[in-house]
Amino acid sequence: MRTAFYISDGTAITSEVFGHALLSLFPIEFEHITIPFVETEQHALEVISQIKSSFEASGDRPLVFYTMVNVEIGKIISNSPGINYDFLNQFVAPLEKVIGVPSKPEKHRTHSIHEKTYDIRIEAVNYALANDDGSNLKDYQEADIILVGVSRSGKTPTSLYLALQFGIKAANYPFTEEDMGDILKLPPVLRRFKDKLYGLTISADRLHAIRSERRANSRYASMPQCRMELREVENLYRKEKIPFINSTKFSVEEISAKILANTGLKRKKY
Amino acid sequence: MRTAFYISDGTAITSEVFGHALLSLFPIEFEHITIPFVETEQHALEVISQIKSSFEASGDRPLVFYTMVNVEIGKIISNSPGINYDFLNQFVAPLEKVIGVPSKPEKHRTHSIHEKTYDIRIEAVNYALANDDGSNLKDYQEADIILVGVSRSGKTPTSLYLALQFGIKAANYPFTEEDMGDILKLPPVLRRFKDKLYGLTISADRLHAIRSERRANSRYASMPQCRMELREVENLYRKEKIPFINSTKFSVEEISAKILANTGLKRKKY
After folding, report:
1. Which of A59, A232, B29, B37 could form an S-S bond across to A184 if both were Cys, CB 3.0 to 4.6 Å?
2. Are A3 and A30 within 8 A, CB to CB?
3. Can you give the residue ranges of every domain in chain B?
4. Shortest Cα distance from B60 to chain A (angstroms)?
5. Best of A7, A8, A11 to mutate (most B CBs within 10 Å, chain B)
6. Residue B108 — pLDDT band, cuts 50, 70, 90?
7. Four-residue CA torsion sign, A232, B37, B252, B241
8. Gyration radius from chain A CA atoms
9. Which keywords fit this entry according to its UniProt record (chains A, B) (predicted)?
10. CB count, 10 Å around CB of B93?
């Protein structure tokens, strides 16, 4: 199997995302090795040895995706025996011409605590945790968005992703049987913040499968119960004109991107 | 201000990460606009109008970072009046030559629920939540790693990041005054899993600031208390040879990358 290296003097997240997206266009498997924080020439030389060993062991030249702010260390990596992709740098000179401003690379500009929105993201994570699963009903005026839906429809991971990645304060509230009674009505605590509500739904099959992993053979996990709850929430979304998304076939990344696109909610971080 | 567009028929996460990393090399501000899930020609034409309006309003040609699996839609975007970066595609043909396999682009290959590790990530998030802040001491045998440290030293956001991004099951345990007594000893529940422990520490100034936002003027937030607790945990880490990291100047992304690099812990997802 061919190896792909992701190397940086920072987290190497950019190299990973770029390299992984590129390699995912090919119908074959790769071995992935990330080496972050290569900040000394000594470390860079060790990395070169590792690339060389991988080449010798597999017979295939490794693919090396790297970003380096330090020019000297970048030069060392650029001489690795792999196929080296200095994939950001090659765009820099043409972009300098376009925008008429010289680049000024500095370390740790992305994915760093020095980003001005970092504290906002951590505060949003704390908010999401404190307001997870209807555990706190009194801080909804602070919410950027309140995700609603039945238990296990994807609210919690989506709230956390919105917080961690975008600094968005997302509360989430589960509709339970107590809310349902004869028919599901919008609880008063949510009606006050109706403009912030965003619904999740999911197919009954998938909900049944997810709940069965938690509590096999329970009424909670049974198909009739799943169908009933989903019918109630979907009716409520339509009646109250609450925007909603069916999460069955989507990842948290996709659900979050769709919510942002549909609501126009402004992220705090890019 | 010049505008940067991030456009895709998927989440546009790859475009955002690439474009943001490139623009962060320049000492100027940009306006950022993400447009995900551009899956029809009609939508693509609307995007072109939006790019055109932005150009006319600002007088500066927008920067357009895009990835498109659908060739026809890609062509439409490639004719936008902005400066268009089809930044992945230009690497594809040379890479095909290198690896001797034709590319086979398919939609939603990255950041999708169809990634085989998706369920593992969601399970890891649920694990991190259930094992947050010492709330559950009986499932540590399932943990890939157990983060330890004083209250507010960064354990929870790091656990969640490790889970969401990498599918790593991270529990976290806060050392409290109850654990400290005269001197902090390793609680028996942790000693059984000593190989999984990873310590966090933080500067007393920063801990004092974070705790003061939570409980101003409390003993909990006071400098002497912060100093005492940090001295105890750092002594414990050294005595018990628990690897640890000072989180003061690092983001969750950086802390997580360093933990993976230092422990050799295998991520479940790339």
Report:
1. A232
2. yes
3. 2-99, 118-263
4. 9
5. A11
6. confident
7. positive
8. 24
9. Kinase, Nucleotide-binding, Serine/threonine-protein kinase, Transferase
10. 10
Known binding-site residue numbers of A for ADP: 149-156
Q: Name the band, by pLDDT with cuts 50, 70 and 90, for residue B270.
A: low
Query: What are B47's two structure tokens?
Result: 């995007």
* Helix/strand/coil for B170: strand
pLDDT at A116: 80
State the amino acid at position B123 in one-letter form.
Answer: E
| Separation between Cα atoms, residue B202 and residue B199, nearest integer Å | 10
- With b for 16 or more beta-carbon neighbours within 10 A and e for fewer, the A113-145 pattern comes to bebeebebbbbbbbbbbebbebeeeeebeebbb
- Domain B2-99 carries which CATH code? 3.40.50
Task: Say if B2-99 and B118-263 have the same CATH topology.
Answer: yes
Q: How many CB atoms lie within 10 A of CB A101?
A: 13
Fold of the domain spanning A118-263: Rossmann fold (3.40.50)
> pLDDT confidence of A67, banded at 50, 70, 90?
very high
Q: Which residues of A touch B83 (CB under 8 A)?
A: 98
B99 to A28: CB separation less than 8 angstroms, yes or no = yes
Residue A61, chain B, CB below 8 Å: the answer is yes
Q: Which position has the higher pLDDT, B110 or B205?
A: B205
Distance CA B118, CA A210 (A): 13
DSSP assignment of B57-86 equals: HHSSPPEEEEE-SSHHHHHHHHTSSSEEE-
Query: Quick one: average pLDDT of B66-94?
Result: 95
Phi, psi of B140 (to 5 degrees): -70, -20
**A67: chain B residues, CB-CB within 8 Å:** 21
* Predicted ipTM of the assembly: 0.93
For the residues of chain B, what is the DSSP string, one character each? -EEEEEEESS--HHHHHHHHHHHTTSSS-EEEEEE----SHHHHHHHHHHHHHHHHHHSSPPEEEEE-SSHHHHHHHHTSSSEEE-TTGGGHHHHHHHHT------TT-SSSTTSTTHHHHHHHHHHHHHTGGGS--S-GGG-SEEEEEETTSSHHHHHHHHHHHH---EEEEEE-HHHHTTS----HHHHTTGGGEEEEE--HHHHHHHHHHHSTT-TTTSHHHHHHHHHHHHHHHHHHT--EEE-TT--HHHHHHHHHHHH-PPPS--
Q: Could you tell me the strand order of the sheet in which B2-8 lies? A: B30-35, B2-8, B63-67, B83-85
CA B116 to each of CA A112, A175, A204, A225, B113: distance values in angstroms, whole numbers, following the listed order: 29, 30, 22, 29, 8
- How would you label A205-243 residue by residue, b for 16+ Cβ within 10 Å and e otherwise? ebbbebbbeeeeeeeebeeebbeebbebbbebbeeeebe
Which amino acid is it at A197? L
Nearest Cβ partner of B157 from A12, A109, A125?
A125
